[in-house]
């Protein structure tokens, strides 16, 4: 399985909590849902204060999903257990 890294395309496979709790920006047009696909744009440590290591528990992944017209659908934060890498 492909590892999670910045610029990796990912699919949401689970949501631990309500979709609203994942939102990193509130100006998104939709909420994330299981099955949605996006791209990891940043990886944060569990405390959110520094760059994260994808192999360390608690690391957070900021993912952006774009609509077909290029506008942002959502920008949200996930744990590794909520995501799987997909082929581009």
* N/C terminus separation: 14 Å
CATH topology: SH3 type barrels
- SS-based structural class? mainly beta
**What is the CATH class name?**
Mainly Beta
Biggest sheet details: 5 strands, antiparallel
Q: How would you describe what is shown here?
A:
- This protein is an all-beta fold and 88 residues long.
- The protein has a single domain, classed as SH3 type barrels.
- Helix content is 0%, strand content 34%.
- It contains no helices and 5 strands.
- It is globular.
Essential attributes:
5 strands; mainly beta; SH3 type barrels; 5-stranded antiparallel β-sheet; 0% helix; 88 residues
What's this, in brief?
This protein is 0% helix and 34% strand.
Helices and strands in order:
Layout: E1 9-12, E2 37-44, E3 60-66, E4 72-79, E5 83-85
Antiparallel strand pairs: 1-2, 1-5, 2-3, 3-4
């Amino acid at each position: 399985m492909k590892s999670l890294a910045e610029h990796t395309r990912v699919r949401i496979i689970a949501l631990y909590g309500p979709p609203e709790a994942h939102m990193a920006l509130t100006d998104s047009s939709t909420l994330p849902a299981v099955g949605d696909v996006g791209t990891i744009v940043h990886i944060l440590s569990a405390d959110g204060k520094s760059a994260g290591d994808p192999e360390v528990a608690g690391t957070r992944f900021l993912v952006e999903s774009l609509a077909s017209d290029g506008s942002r659908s959502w920008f949200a934060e996930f744990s590794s257990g909520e995501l799987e890498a997909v082929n581009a």
